Amino acid sequence: MTLRKVNVVIILLLAVAFLIIVQRNLLNLSDILHMENPVAGKSLPFESELSPDLGLESVRKGEEISVLITAVEERLGAVVAAMNSVYQNSKANVVFTIVTLNDTVEHLNVWLSKTQLNNIKYNIVIFKPELLSGKMSKDSPMLQDAQPLTFARFYLPVYLPKAEKAIYLDDDVIVQGNIQELYETNLKPGHAAAFSDDCDSASVKGIIRGAGNPNNYLGFLDFKKDAIKQLGMKANTCSFNPGVIIANLTEWRNQNITLQLEHWMELNSREDLYSKTLAESIITPPLLIVFYKRHSAIDPMWHVRHLGTTGAGKRYSPQFVKAAKLLHWNGHYKPWGRTSSFSNVWDKWFIADPVGKFNPVRKSPGDH
Ligand SMILES: *[C@@H]1O[C@H](CO)[C@@H](O)[C@H](O)[C@H]1NC(C)=O
Ligand SMILES: *[C@@H]1O[C@H](CO)[C@@H](O)[C@H](O)[C@H]1NC(C)=O
Ligand SMILES: *[C@@H]1O[C@H](CO)[C@@H](O)[C@H](O)[C@H]1NC(C)=O
Ligand SMILES: *[C@@H]1O[C@H](CO)[C@@H](O)[C@H](O)[C@H]1NC(C)=O
Predict the structure, then answer these.
(1) N or C: which end of the chain has fewer CB within 10 A?
(2) Is domain 60-367 in CATH 3.50.50.60, yes or no?
């Protein structure tokens, strides 16, 4: 071989290597583009020149943390704020599953793709209200304003078929800690879920009593009914709040938790088993029965609640609210409404609706 021929071969090899490298990078780029949400097409990652970390953010790796949340059209701003708070306060590979109704999908997709949330990984699942037919009595006044979507948490393994462990969050929460910590909540062997107990510590107990909420089973279930008596549960057992759930979905499936919950819903629709004074959600009683003495505990700071009840602003100091890992505005007064406590905290995570349909009610300068 002459020297010239050798040079040509080397140049050819270099050219091939160069093409391979270019192609690989292009492939990776297209991977990244395709990995993101279907509607995010308009804002490509490399267009976000102004915030360089955004590009890095889009490739969060590591163990997937599945978070399930429901989205109700009238309070879509709540879901967006909750998701934003989870995402911004953690570097973990969070994947949201959002359960919603068909009519909400488009609005939600626009909100998540046209704003700074466009790197969030999510998938949307449509809730089928038929799921609940025959399990709720139509005439019970308690059910009048019940949102069918609140029952989605009974079906966690249905919506998360691939996950082994998952977090369920109500939409009226803000997460201030790293969600990875909540995810790592230890579930005892044989337990399908962890909840935050209503009398975990003296302070939580006082706060819940002060807010006029029941903190034991008697507040949720009618212990005069045979079906309840037969279970032999102690009426003064501490209740728990199902607004935040950590679930082991393997255990959930093995123990047929969903079937059991459905059984109690059906029975209640015939025999009215829930407490007459039930103030909290109708979601709670079946969970209390099925998870009686069979659930693990969530760190109280990971579910600081009752921010939506009257006087929350007096019960909690701003320092305590700041230190909380998760805040829950359960109760009547929502932080996107006019008269809620600590709505300034919620405002930090809210992202304006690009379509302009959802607007938090805020005092206008002329109001006072
Ligand atoms: C492209 O992706 C492949 C496989 O996913 C990976 O091995 C390679 O390091 C990536 N290259 C770059 C430049 O990111
Ligand atoms: C869901 O909505 C889309 C349009 O928004 C419509 O084409 C489709 O038929 C709807 N599906 C159901 C099951 O209602
Ligand atoms: C879930 O429960 C199964 C069955 O008890 C157990 O083998 C598994 O380790 C648990 N997974 C987690 C993440 O706790
Ligand atoms: C769960 O349900 C299946 C099918 O209905 C049944 O075969 C099984 O015994 C149940 N397991 C438990 C633990 O109840």
Answers:
(1) C
(2) no
